[in-house]
Design a protein that fits this description.
This protein is of the alpha+beta class. It has seven helices and six strands, in the order αββαααβαβαββα.
Length: about 170
């Protein structure tokens, strides 16, 4: 009997851990697009057939080589938290660029946490409140657990140049 209880408890813990990594999927009422809400990854986005904007945008984007070199040398010392809307046109532009920049800069993707939000800009776990998310996309740069910069909606110069400027200011 005790073995059954232990096995059941372990199975429940596994379900709880797995459930924390899930995201909700709904349909946007305004434009009919698929909405991911919760913790997501680039792999999750790539698996959705209607998200052709990710692949096409990443393939079309040509990041600045000088900024990429600086990011290759330094960005791995930082952690990124990104909030995006799969329904959002600005996210359809910036998130593919982010994917291309991080890939070209050889950023360790385990240091990226990405959240999908709905039109109310909420996540499933309250991270939107913790990081005061009002606009998407938002890319937050952390160093040693503290926010050192953020890019909101659109970059000032380019995504890679803005990330490089954040790093330069926090070396």
């Amino acid at each position: 009997m005790r073995k059954i209880f232990v096995i059941a408890a372990l199975m429940m813990m596994n379900l709880t851990i797995t459930a924390q990594d899930k995201y909700e999927t709904t349909t946007d009422e305004k434009n009919g697009s698929v909405v991911y809400r919760g913790n997501i990854s680039f792999a999750d986005l790539e698996q959705e057939k209607t998200f052709n904007w990710l692949r096409q945008g990443a393939q079309a984007y040509e990041p600045d080589a000088a900024s990429i070199e600086l990011l290759k040398e330094n960005l791995s010392q930082y952690r990124l938290i990104t909030f995006m809307g799969t329904w959002c046109d600005d996210s359809h532009v910036l998130i593919p660029q982010l994917y291309k920049v991080l890939t070209d800069a050889r950023f360790p993707m385990e240091e990226l946490t990405m959240y999908g939000v709905d039109r109310t800009k909420t996540t499933t776990d309250g991270a939107h409140t913790q990081y005061s998310i009002n606009l998407v996309p938002t890319v937050i740069v952390l160093r040693n657990g503290k926010e050192v910069g953020r890019i909101t909606e659109s970059p000032r110069k380019s995504l890679e140049a803005d990330l490089a400027n954040i790093i330069r200011a926090n070396k």
